[in-house]
Write a structure and sequence with these properties.
The complex is a heterodimer of chains A (about 110) and B (about 230).
Chain A lengths: L9 H4 L11 H13 L2 H14 L2 H23 L13 H7 L5 H6 L2
Helix pairs in contact in A: 2-3, 2-4, 3-4
Chain B lengths: L11 H14 L8 H16 L24 H12 L6 H8 L5 H23 L39 H4 L5 H14 L19 H14 L5
Helix pairs in contact in B: 1-7, 2-3, 2-5, 3-5, 5-7
The chains are: A mainly alpha (about 110), B mainly alpha (about 230).
Chain lengths: ~110, ~230
């Protein structure tokens, strides 16, 4: 992969802000949104775009990674997994940038 | 036999691991029988395929939502639906209410493992318009249901073993079989958990590590997961 620019958190916050310096970042972010929304038309369109821009192997691997985080998020949230010691302070700015501070799970992860 | 028959270029290791996970679901667990573990997977599928309920609505309170052939405790069914459809709303009080209905805390950990795995594997299939993994015949051995005195509630809501690693890797440690299943899936769908922090640059199959992390973080945000 070619990194053409400094990596930022834009593609994590939403898919409208750009690639964030990651190749196909916005497209992959839109793929995640379509998988989450389960809108078949939206999903079919985005999948076609991923295949055309990056290839079918990227589509399969990207769907696999996204699907994996339907497991990891449920494990973390259903077990009351706290933030790891040492990650709380360094991640303050990142958490603000990607907009996760309003989540219910914040209260639980920081107890 | 692979889990999926498709023209899509699904890697053999991924295809075989999903098939392996289905076999593990059908195996007798520490707390749940093979039939009960498959019933957990079926309940995940029912929750995902149903009309959405609000987070505070329990499927057990809605007439007709739970099959008359259900073999799981009602508290387990309610937990499966809530974890599947509203993971970002879970609280310590909610967890206490579930185990307070008689669900053993270690049995709850095993349930969370199976629910989480089924969500990942079915979401993969659904997103690619594949048939969901078929479920094998269950093992007929009975679960031991023996509490492990070495696990205790310390950092998480649930009891955990004293193992090293990120807190999310400790989350299912009270039931090592489920922790192993999580790591099997991680190695084919994300990054081997042993390499999670030690190798931040290597490509993962057709994706760069940065692409992997964008997808991971975007999906976690969509699921409103703070961790």
């Amino acid at each position: 992969m070619n990194q053409d620019a400094e990596v930022t958190f834009e593609a994590i916050d939403n898919s409208e802000s750009g690639d964030g310096g990651v190749e196909h970042g916005a497209l992959l972010s839109r793929l995640c949104e379509a998988i989450y929304n389960e809108d078949q038309d939206q999903l079919a369109s985005i999948k076609d775009q991923v295949i055309e821009s990056a290839g079918a192997d990227v589509l399969v691997d990207a769907v696999a990674v996204s699907a994996h985080f339907y497991m990891m998020t449920r494990i973390a949230d259903a077990t009351g997994t706290p933030l790891d010691a040492g990650s709380v302070e360094p991640s303050i700015q990142i958490r603000e940038l990607v907009g996760v501070n309003a989540f219910t799970s914040r209260r639980e992860a920081q107890k | 036999m692979p889990a999926y028959l498709t023209e899509l270029p699904i890697r053999p290791d991924l295809n075989e691991t999903h098939e392996e996970l289905a076999k593990r679901w059908a195996t007798t667990g520490l707390w749940w029988s093979g039939a009960e573990r498959l019933a957990i997977v079926e309940e995940v599928r029912a929750a995902r395929d149903s009309e959405p309920l609000a987070p505070w609505e329990s499927p057990s309170a809605v007439e007709g939502l739970i099959s008359e052939e259900n073999i799981l405790p009602i508290s387990a069914v309610d937990a499966i639906w809530r974890i599947t459809n509203h993971p970002g709303t879970l609280t310590a009080e909610w967890h206490a209410s579930i185990v307070g209905q008689g669900l053993n805390p270690e049995a709850y950990v095993e349930l969370v493992g199976v629910v989480a795995q089924a969500n990942a594997i079915d979401r993969f299939a659904d997103a690619l318009n594949l048939e969901r993994v078929s479920l094998p015949e269950p093992s007929h051995l009975e679960p031991a249901k023996s509490p492990d005195p070495s696990v205790q509630v310390s950092s998480h809501w649930v009891p955990t073993a004293q193992i090293k690693g990120p807190n999310v890797v400790k989350a299912l440690s009270a039931v090592p079989f489920e922790n192993e299943s999580m790591q099997l899936l991680s190695s084919v769908q994300y990054v081997g958990l042993g390499d999670l922090l030690s190798d931040l640059v290597s490509d993962q199959n057709s994706l760069s590590r940065m692409q992997v992390e964008v997808i991971a973080a975007r999906t976690s945000k969509l699921n409103e997961c703070f961790y």
